[in-house]
Design a protein that fits this description.
Layout (H helix, E strand, L loop, with lengths): L1 E5 L5 E3 L3 H23 L7 H12 L2 H15 L6 E7 L2 E6 L2
Antiparallel strand pairs: 1-2, 1-4, 3-4
Length: 99
C-alpha cells in the first residue's frame, strides 16, 4: 500500500497486491536472464574504457540481483503491518506499508 498525503488536502492510496509484484519480478528475472545470455556473446571491445564497462556488466549477474530482490519482497510480504518507508518532506508525506 502506497499512501501520499499533502497537508490541508486529501491524500490518495495506491494499493499494489503482492501477487502483482511477484509476477513482475518473475517476468523481470526472465528478461534479465535473456539479457545475460546475450551479453555473454558480445566480444570485448578494443577500447579500454568500453572494455572495463562491459567487463563490469559481465561480472555481475542481473538475474541474480533480480532473484535476490524477488526473494526479499516475498520475505517482507510475511510481515503484515510493516512500514517500509515513512518520509515527510514539507507538506508531502509518503508512506509505503505492507498490509
Amino acid at each position: 500500500m502506497v499512501r501520499v498525503k499533502v497537508k490541508r488536502r486529501m491524500g490518495f492510496a495506491f494499493p499494489v497486491p503482492i501477487w502483482v509484484v511477484d509476477e513482475f519480478f518473475e517476468a523481470l528475472a526472465d528478461l534479465a536472464w535473456v539479457g545475460e545470455m546475450a551479453l555473454r556473446r558480445v566480444p570485448l571491445p578494443r577500447e579500454e574504457k568500453a572494455r572495463n564497462h562491459l567487463r563490469w556488466v559481465k561480472a555481475i549477474s542481473p538475474s541474480g540481483i533480480v532473484a535476490g530482490s524477488h526473494s526479499i519482497i516475498k520475505d517482507l510480504s510475511k510481515y503484515k503491518g510493516l512500514d517500509v518507508v515513512d518520509v515527510e518532506a514539507g507538506d508531502v508525506r509518503v508512506k509505503i506499508s505492507l498490509k
